[in-house]
Design brief:
Layout lengths: L1 H32 L4 H15 L7 H9 L2 H8 L6 H13 L3 H10 L4 H22 L22 H35 L2 H15 L7 H9 L6 H10 L4 H13 L5 H4 L8 H37 L1
Helix pairs in contact: 1-4, 1-8, 3-4, 5-7, 7-12, 9-10, 10-11, 10-12, 12-14
Length: 314
């Protein structure tokens, strides 16, 4: 058990270091850019489109950063902005569906899923969810309070003060994420060493069947749900090869997983932003189930129709 904890702790520290190298400069740069003409100009340019999603123009910053980099970098950007609880929640839901597109899309390609399907599903879910939440939810107009990040008292004056403010925000942001990431990686390591992923895969079998997939998809689903598309890539690619998962089933699995993956990590990391994370998880899970079942039903009907046509032609 001692070696497991040690390995988990080292993985957690390495992950925090790797993420910190992204979060720190992103938070610092965005914080400094707020005091330059660059950010206000960019915000003014895209505000009309963002208002359609119920967001202010500066909300585009974490959305762009999150999609090109990852959730941690996006959170680093959010920490520098004055946003309402509703805006932060909408951004969190959008980013839950669509983030780290370059890395996570490459994982999908490696297991044989078409790129256009992944991009369309992720961006489509992000934009549709934002429009729906904006129309349905009338609350959340108060300014969000970001965990241990102090609320703004007055504008920083002078480059020294601006730099200090940015460094403080970046440092506090990394510290908060480390509190979540390190214990999480220890738990993941314990799961690996105790073979709990295999047990969870067996539990997943009836669920994968209900979602229109064969039982041999359960390990891929379990790895994606628990570890995520990026960290679980190795396990998932190996599982698809070893378990002989069909093209149809792996596509259905990824349609589910792009909507809902890394359910523990990708939910907990939003806690420092002061938003309700349980509704965030339930939205992701509900959308993933409904979307996957719908696509599976349509796909099965199309297959039946094709088989009937083949019989008639004979």
């Amino acid at each position: 058990m001692g070696s497991t904890l040690k390995r988990g702790l080292m993985v957690g520290l390495n992950t925090t270091w790797a993420l910190g190298k992204v979060i720190f400069p992103v938070t610092l740069i965005v914080s400094i850019l707020q005091y330059t003409p660059v950010l206000p100009w960019l915000i003014e340019l895209i505000t009309p489109m963002m208002s359609f999603l119920g967001l202010s123009g500066d909300a585009a910053i974490p959305l762009v950063i999150g999609n090109f980099l990852n959730l941690y970098a996006a959170i680093g950007a959010i920490l520098t902005l004055d946003l309402t609880v509703k805006e932060v929640f909408i951004i969190a839901v959008m980013l839950s569906f669509s983030h780290n597109m370059l890395v996570e899309s490459s994982v999908a390609l490696k297991v044989g899923v078409k790129l256009w399907i992944i991009v369309l599903v992720r961006l489509g879910l992000a934009f549709i969810s934002a429009v729906v939440i904006n129309l349905v939810w009338n609350g959340g107009s108060e300014i969000a309070r970001y965990g241990m990040v102090p609320s703004k008292s007055e504008e920083a004056s002078g480059w020294g003060a601006i730099l200090l403010e940015g460094i403080t925000k970046a440092g506090v942001g990394i510290f908060q994420l480390a509190i979540i990431v390190i214990p999480l990686m220890v738990v993941v390591q314990i799961m690996k060493d105790k073979q709990w992923l295999a047990v969870f895969s067996r539990w997943m079998a009836p669920i994968t069947r209900a979602l229109g997939m064969k039982e041999n998809t359960s390990t891929t689903m379990a790895a994606g749900l628990l570890i995520g598309l990026a960290y679980g890539a190795g396990v998932m690619i190996q599982a698809v090869k070893e378990d002989g998962v069909s093209k149809k089933d792996v596509t259905l699995a990824f349609i589910f997983l792009v909507a809902c993956h890394a359910v523990v990590e990708d939910t907990l990391i939003f806690i420092p932003l002061g938003i309700p994370v349980l509704p965030l998880l339930l939205i992701r899970l509900g959308v993933a189930i409904l979307l996957t079942i719908t696509v599976a039903v349509i796909w099965n009907r199309a297959d039946i129709a094709k088989r009937k046509e083949a019989v008639y032609e004979q």
